[in-house]
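Researcher: Here's my situation. A collaborator sent me these components and asked whether they could plausibly form a single complex. I don't have experimental data yet, so a predicted model of the whole assembly would be a useful starting point for our discussion.
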Amino acid sequence: MRFIIQRDRLVHSVQEVMKAVTSRTTIPILTGIKITAVEDGVTLTGSDSDISIQSFIPIEEEENEIVEIKQSGSIVLNARFFGDIVRKLPMDTVDIEVLNGFQTIIRSGKAEFNLNGLDAEEYPHLPIIEEDQTFKLPADLLKTLIRQTVFAVSTSETRPILTGVNLKVEDDELICIATDSHRLAMRKAKIDNKVVGSYSVVIPGKSLNELSKLLDDTNELIEMVITENQVLFKAKNLLFFSRLLEGNYPDTSRLIPNESKTSITVHSKDFLQAIDRASLLAKEGKNNVVKLTTLVGGVIEVSSNTPEIGKVSEELQAESIEGEELKISFSAKFVMDALKALEGTDITINFTGAMRPFIIRSLHDDTMLQLILPVRTY
Amino acid sequence: MRFIIQRDRLVHSVQEVMKAVTSRTTIPILTGIKITAVEDGVTLTGSDSDISIQSFIPIEEEENEIVEIKQSGSIVLNARFFGDIVRKLPMDTVDIEVLNGFQTIIRSGKAEFNLNGLDAEEYPHLPIIEEDQTFKLPADLLKTLIRQTVFAVSTSETRPILTGVNLKVEDDELICIATDSHRLAMRKAKIDNKVVGSYSVVIPGKSLNELSKLLDDTNELIEMVITENQVLFKAKNLLFFSRLLEGNYPDTSRLIPNESKTSITVHSKDFLQAIDRASLLAKEGKNNVVKLTTLVGGVIEVSSNTPEIGKVSEELQAESIEGEELKISFSAKFVMDALKALEGTDITINFTGAMRPFIIRSLHDDTMLQLILPVRTY
């Protein structure tokens, strides 16, 4: 194998596939990046066996030569060393050559690295995905779907299925749900091309976080392919594979109350900041619990009290308060997470009593829903 | 005590004194910030008993009212909570009032915090500094002196005296020296006002790092006052106290060789980058050792070799090589630290053999010197 490549393109692709590489692997070859040069270009692959990322660098793009392939072939190079080296090379082009054995020479200017490689034949094969059922989403919408749900996945391995986001496709609608059993985030979106049949899979939250970092905020269409135990996201020159979580995702639809006893509409940013302040004196441990009380005249009070530190209270004018009076306590963190995920300037919160889950929605957007369980303090 | 203050000025002063506050203290009251309001303004104090910082906010500045003192007095408030609170308050002004006992009310807009304070009488007194001998340095020069030496202090407590920077004043010259016994950094500077007598004190490296963060890159004159066991730096509205390290600093003058067997002049940035690249494959453990070899034609080779990973070599055209041929090995980190501290574009390195310390100087500036001990590999 030998090719000469533009350094910045190589650096970019190495950074992409590095997101799948971990040094904490029990499979030594997965600490490496697989590099394959063929006639069309160079492919880099990184994997931690849960996530696999493949980045392709074509020999030319918009009539600019990016890679000159001298001899096709493949090699696996230690990801950390290779990444550090290409980032710090002195010139704009890099010459990479595999000698006999797996010795690899990396030349740029007067700097010459001789790196011990590994046999690319030993590198695990990527999952084979049959592409009979695919659908497409713009990259920015996909990033938004992830951002608005993934924060609510469970971080505990007690119920592994809850560490993932449930992704359902029904006709022309995509539904993403995440819950850690104390709160739930849901977001729906229309998909353009109608899908035959329906899917319900669970994608690990970690995979979606990594995917989100790789996607640009553009309307470039990302193709999704779902199989029994893998999902594949295809962008231009980039393939992102993730394993799926096994098991049945709980039916969350019956958790969501239909009725409402108290309904508060409030300016999202003011409410968020008041809760943030009230939580300052409630930070000991993880129970950063704040209390919300409805007062007369459409005013709500946000407060907290930790006797050994002090107490805080703040009054806030709501847009409207309808229904019964209410005193309720909740995790400030959960409500702040939910408010940050909802993009609306005004939000409506529907309560069905101090002991029952409550729902936060954007006033003008019904594609998103955040559900939170209160904390019992009375 | 009660005063109304501009929030941004309070936030700024809290951030300054917070640099001295640590949560890991055995003296509970030192987790707090002492706030004192008198007729002239408000003083905040933070301390970890090694470093003490006092920040003063005058009632007015350039005819703008900053503080309105309603009632003088003092209180100690938990630094973390108080810092978080003032940073997140909703309005531009803050009303702070101590009620009977040590209950403190912090009001801003409709937010009201009630924080448990501590008795300011219990807060340790700051050192009393007699100001018979003082001298002044511009803030930017003081920052440079710190930056060019403090990185070379020892991080090991084996010889505590080496964790500080030796600061000597003789007539109109200030000399800063730091060494961890493997390398040494020295910087001299003229001071304007002549000092009677001579000083030699050792200031903890940690103190200087914190001081450096507080100083602006301006030519504002900073006044230094040295006493037997304390040093005080005085800036506008800011006092910075540090204890001094006890003991005699070693005489380092005899470590610095006068003769030279090989002298290399090279472009600093090219040399730094070549060493950085050579060190990439030598990073295992702390022995990131690289080798320098003089070749014919004024060329130097920088290389390293770690058999299990690979090897790297790079040739570099020196401006000049004078004297004997040389092969020497050294810590890439130490040489890179030294090159970053020296600001010159061209540097001269004087060697007296592969086993002896070598000296790096800026070609056109003799106020700085960096000495490094080589590593024996032959």
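Model: Some features of this prediction you could bring to your collaborator: The first helix of chain B runs from residue 7 to 18. Chain B touches chain A at residues 78, 81, 84-85, 88-90, 104, 110-116, 273-274, 276-277, 280-281, 308-316 (CB under 8 Å).
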